[in-house]
Structures are given as C-alpha cells and as structure tokens.
Amino acid sequence: MSDKISRRSFFQRSAAAGALSFLAASGLNKPVYGMTNSQEIGTVIDLSKCDGCKNLETPLCVSACRQKNQTKFPEPITPIKDYWPQPKHEDWSDKRGLTTRLTPYNWNYVEHVQVDHNGETEDVYVMRHCMHCDNATCQKVCPFSAINKDAHGAVSINENICFGGAKCRDVCPWGIPQRQAGVGLYLDIAPTLAGGGVMYKCDLCRDLLAKGEKPRCESACPKNAITSGPKEEMKDYAKARAQEIGGYIYGDVQNGGTSTFYVSKVPFSKINEAIAATKKAQDDEKPGRPLMPADVENYLDTEKGMAIGVLTAPIAGAALAAVTVYKTLKGEKVDD
Amino acid sequence: MTNKILRQSRANRFIHWGTAISILLLIISGMGQLPVYKRYNVTSLPGGEWLGSFFEMLDLHYLAAGILIFVVSFHLVYHALRREYDIFPKKGDVKESYLIIKAMVTGGKEPPADKYLAEQRLAYAFIGVNVVVLILTGIVKVLKNFAGSQLPETLIALSTHLHNLATVLLIFGIGAHLLAFIVKANRPLIRGMFYGTVDEDYAKERHSLWYNRGRGKNITKTKDKEVKQKNDSQNKSLDA
Ligand code: HEM
Ligand code: HEM
Ligand code: SF4
Ligand code: SF4
Ligand code: SF4
C-alpha cells in the first residue's frame, strides 16, 4: 500500500513525469517503455522493500529467472577436458540446482546479510545480477567481440562467439559472468589447448525489453522491489526513494555509472563488509558472490589520457617528418 | 678493411628500430589482452606477474601503439616528401624474387638489384599492409573504449577480427624477416641497420643498380632519367 503511494507521490513531484504517473498508477506490469525502441532502461532494486522471499525456499525473482532462461543453460559435452596446462576446468553442470550464487545456471541470486545500523540489527536481502554498466568493461575489452550492448543498454554475451577465456569476469568489478566448460566455439577449434567454455550472465531479459515487456525477475517480485523504466527517470526515482527513507544508492556512479540502482536504508559500506565477512566465514572464495565496494573506478575511463595520446601520435610523427625534410632541403645535412 | 658506404640513414634506422621495438611491445601487450599468460603459466615466471594484468597490458599497448603510429606517420610523410619509393614493390617483383632465391639456392647469378631486393620490397609490402590494418583497426578499438561511445556492433566486431588476423599474419611476416638473416648473403645488411653503413664491395655486387646510381648521386643529384634507364635495363635483363 504505502509503496504505491510513495511511488505515485514521487512521480507527481517529478516535472517530466506526467505520462508516467498515469502509467505508475495504472499498474506496473504494463509496458512503460515501449515508447521508443532505443531508450536506455534503468532498474531500481529497492532493498527496503525486498524481504528475500524468506518464506520460500527460492526467492521468486530467482526462480522466475531460472525458469525463463532454462533453455539457454549450457549442456556440456562430456567428458570435459581440463584447461591445459592447468589441472582444472569450471563445471557447474552438476550443481544446476544451486540458487545462492551466480553460476552459468543461475543468473541472479539473493545475498542475505545482517547489518547493525542505528542500534538495530537489520536483515538485508540483496538481489544481485549484472549491473549493465554504461561503459561496460566486459563488453569493451572482449577480445572476440562476443559481448554486445543493445539500444536498451542490455549487455549480453553471444554464446556462439564466446571462447570462454573469462576475461570479462576478470575485468568486471563484480566478477559477474560465470563460466561453463564443455560448450561453445572452442570445442571446434583446439579444445585442449585454448578456450574454456562459454560465459553466462543476466541479459536484462533483452528479448522481453524488445517486446516492450518487463524483465521476468521484476514481474515475479511480490514486493515491487524491482522497478525498471527509462533510465534517467529510474535514477531520479532511486534518488527520491533514497531521500524518502534517508538511505543510500549503489550503482549510479560505480564503474563509471551503471543502469542498476540499489536503494537501501543501510549504508552500502556496511553491506559490503557484511558480505565479505559472510564469505570469509564460509571460506567461500569462488566467483559468483560479488561484493559491493563503494569505490569502483572504470579503468577504461582512467585510460583516456593514453588513448588521446594514441590519437594525436600521427600528427606528431608527420610534423617531425616535415621538419626533418625541411632541414635537409635547406642543406643542413645530406643523408641518403 | 674494405670501404663502407651509407645504406640506411639515421632517419631510416630510427624508423626501423622504432617500429621493431614498438611492434615487439605490441605483440607482448596484445597477447596480454587475451587470457593467455595466466593460463600458460607465463605469469609464474620470475618477473612475469604484471603480464597477467589486463589493464597494465592495455597501458603498455596504448603506449607502444602511440610510438608505432608516430614512427609510421613519420616514415610515410618523410619519404613521400623526399619522393623516395625504393622499397615499394615494382612490377615483376614476384618473378624477380623467385630468380633471386633460385640463384641463392643453386649458386647461380642473381639478377642485378636496386637498393632493395625484390623480396625485400615484397616483404615490406606484406608487413606494411598488416601494420596499416592493425593501426586502423586499433584506432577503432581505442575509440570504442571511450566512455559514452557505443560504436556499431558490426564495426567493433569487424575491427576486432581484422586486428586479430593481421596480428597472426604480422607475426609470420616478422618471423620470416628474421629467418632471412640465416641466409649468409643477407647478413652484411645487418650492420647497415645498426651503424648505417655496409661494405662497398657487397653493395657493388648485390645491389649494383643502387650502387651505381648512388655513385652518380654523389656527384650531382639523382637524375631521374638515369634511374629510368637503369630500371629499363633491369627489366630487359629479366626478360632475357
Ligand atoms: C603491430 C601491431 C599490433 C599488434 C600485433 C596488436 C595485437 C593486438 C592483440 C593480439 C590484441 C588482443 C585481441 C583483441 O582485443 O582484438 C589487441 C588488442 C587491442 N589493440 Fe592491438 N595490436 C597492434 C597495434 C595496435 C595499434 C596501433 C592500436 C591503436 C591504435 C591498437 C589498439 C588495440 C586495442 C585498443 C586493443 C583492445 C584492447 C581492448 O580490448 O580494449 N593495437 N592488439
Ligand atoms: C631484432 C630484429 C631485427 C633485425 C636484426 C632487423 C634487421 C633488418 C635489416 C638488416 C634490414 C634492412 C636490410 C637492408 O638494409 O636492406 C631490415 C629491414 C626491414 N625490417 Fe627489420 N630487423 C629486425 C626486426 C624487425 C621487426 C620486428 C620489424 C617489424 C615489423 C622489421 C621490419 C623491417 C622492414 C619492414 C624492413 C624493410 C624491408 C626489408 O628490407 O625486408 N624488422 N631489418
Ligand atoms: S526482489 Fe522480490 S522476488 Fe526477489 S527476493 Fe526480494 S522480494 Fe523476493
Ligand atoms: S556488471 Fe560486469 S558483466 Fe555486467 S556489464 Fe558491468 S562489467 Fe559487464
Ligand atoms: S533481468 Fe532477466 S536475465 Fe536478468 S536476472 Fe532478471 S530475469 Fe534474470
């Protein structure tokens, strides 16, 4: 109840939201952003609303995602070879049922931590999936161009091109994409010597977005904790929500900006510490349970100076050549 | 001691070693863009750890790319302004290089050569085309990395695949270039790339057209007509 009111009051406050307030009032499962095809989508994940579906074995957002994507899950060809010369490979196919971390068979999960805040112990549930970054590091530096960012801003991995080197996971500040060996292009090339499988992650339900529909996890959430819509408006909505509850936002500036905005009453630094502590207590060092560090720089942005240097190099080289030739012509030195 | 004559000017040596060093760094750092050093345990070699950092490798790739582009544009503008095209492939080079290799194998007489042997000119073209492709596709890759830039998917994919293909071809080309110095007859050129000069006798014998032209040039400036005559006679000797 109160949720609906607060959302509506926000939209009424917002100047450009005349049409939206109507849509918000008339129910959120309708396509709000079928308006233009090339509009970037943002998602607000409101931790003050999510209760982790704690009465269910699997949170609804997670089971909905699994159900929707089950046809895309990898079917590895066995026996799976090791990544020569390493005596290992990544195989999650016997842990398909795992719902408590990111795996090739589980593209979102809910992290549960307890955080002390203002003298109280709060249960915090954080639904995690790909942040769909603005300058998506994974997409930009994929050496096979297997990752694409579409007009809605959905970052997705093409399972037919991906070679499974896991570079995207290494460069992702949250280590989001997860690898399954024994599938993909590398099997046709040199399966023992190179490649490692295919990387899998949330694709923001890009097929649904293209039809003007909502991501499946959002539709499944009984608490309306997940809200997507035109990105700038979602950012404003996150800000307004944060102000309303005296809380914080995560995802708006990290990695140079993303299209996922977490809102929480509890500072994210505390959530981050709590996740780290839980993982440590469980001795969990495997990828697939991302932290929430506040300072996440986008390395490609910090590299800009170098890049500009590269782009001015031709002018500098040409200028030096012209000067050198000019000097020679003036007879300063006759060199062959 | 035999006389030495100038073969590679300071500018040429700067160009050669500038490209050689930057390309070496580009190959190392380009491989560092691929997830290979960790997997194949290169990072566990002493001092090899930094090779495993994609971003340090990208810094190095950018730095070396800057050097390469600087040197290549210097090279193109410098020789274009001076109208020096000795190293551009000419008509008949494929046939001529075949004759040279045949002569080297059989110990027969090589056709008279200009400053560069026909296969050197072909090697230059092969390496040159790949380097240009790498630079152009590399620039697309740099542009795509800027925040806020979303280049068309097909352009990114095309430049990635061309960049990778040209890398493979260039590595072959450089391998062949270095292997060429196994052949004894080519070795006197090496000192030219370091010190600028080669033995006069060697030049007279192996690059007679260039040598004779050079002597003329020492007196006056190059006479275009003379060069043309030389080229004509060269073609004739080939036809014969
Ligand atoms: C001889 C020259 C070069 C070689 C052998 C080389 C090799 C490579 C290789 C193997 C990769 C990794 C695969 C890939 O991402 O496609 C790469 C990536 C890259 N190269 Fe080069 N490269 C050369 C020149 C250049 C130049 C001149 C530039 C810039 C103008 C450049 C810019 C890049 C960029 C931006 C990347 C991608 C890194 C990223 O994903 O952001 N490269 N190069
Ligand atoms: C350490 C290694 C290298 C050595 C000792 C070396 C040596 C030489 C020598 C002696 C020449 C000139 C021959 C002459 O005067 O006619 C030459 C030419 C040339 N070098 Fe290299 N080089 C090396 C590496 C490279 C690399 C890495 C490249 C990069 C692409 C390169 C590209 C060229 C080109 C394009 C030419 C002109 C064409 C030709 O003569 O074949 N070199 N090099
Ligand atoms: S986001 Fe919604 S569906 Fe997911 S755990 Fe929280 S309340 Fe349940
Ligand atoms: S969160 Fe990671 S995987 Fe998702 S878009 Fe950003 S860099 Fe890529
Ligand atoms: S947006 Fe789609 S793919 Fe991503 S977590 Fe939600 S349901 Fe899964």
What is the CATH superfamily label of the largest domain in chain B?
Transmembrane di-heme cytochromes, Chain C
Structural class of chain B: mainly alpha
C-alpha geometry of chain B: elongated
The main β sheet of chain A shows up as: 4 strands, mixed
Count up the domains of chain A: 2
Mean pLDDT over the full residue set of chain A = 83
Mean pLDDT of chain B: 79
What is the count of β-strands of chain A?
10
CATH architecture of the largest domain in chain A: 2-Layer Sandwich
Structure description:
The complex is a heterodimer of chains A (336) and B (240). In chain A, the strands form four sheets. In chain A, strands 8-1-10-9 form a four-stranded mixed beta sheet. A two-stranded antiparallel ribbon of chain A has the order 2-3. By secondary structure, chain A is of the alpha+beta class. In chain A, helix 1 (2-13) packs antiparallel against helix 2. The model of chain A is unreliable at 1-35 (pLDDT under 50). Chain A has helices spanning 2-13, 18-25, 60-69, 137-141, 167-171, 206-210, 216-220, 231-245, 268-281, 299-302, 304-329; strands at residues 41-46, 109-117, 120-128, 147-149, 155-157, 178-180, 198-200, 226-230, 248-250, 260-264. In chain A, strand 4 (147-149) and strand 5 form a beta hairpin. Chain A starts with a helix and ends in a 7-residue tail after the last helix. Chain A has two domains: 7-302, Alpha-Beta Plaits, CATH 3.30.70.20; 303-336. Chain B is mainly α and 240 residues long. Chain B has three domains: 7-84; 88-206, Fumarate Reductase Cytochrome B subunit (Up-down Bundle); 212-240. Chain B has nine helices and two strands; from the N terminus they run E-H-H-H-H-H-H-E-H-H-H. Chain B starts with a strand and ends with a helix. Chains A and B meet through helix 5, helix 10 and helix 11 of A and helix 2, helix 4 and helix 5 of B. Residues 130-133, 136-138, 155, 172, 174, 176-177, 201 of chain A line the site of one iron/sulfur cluster (SF4).
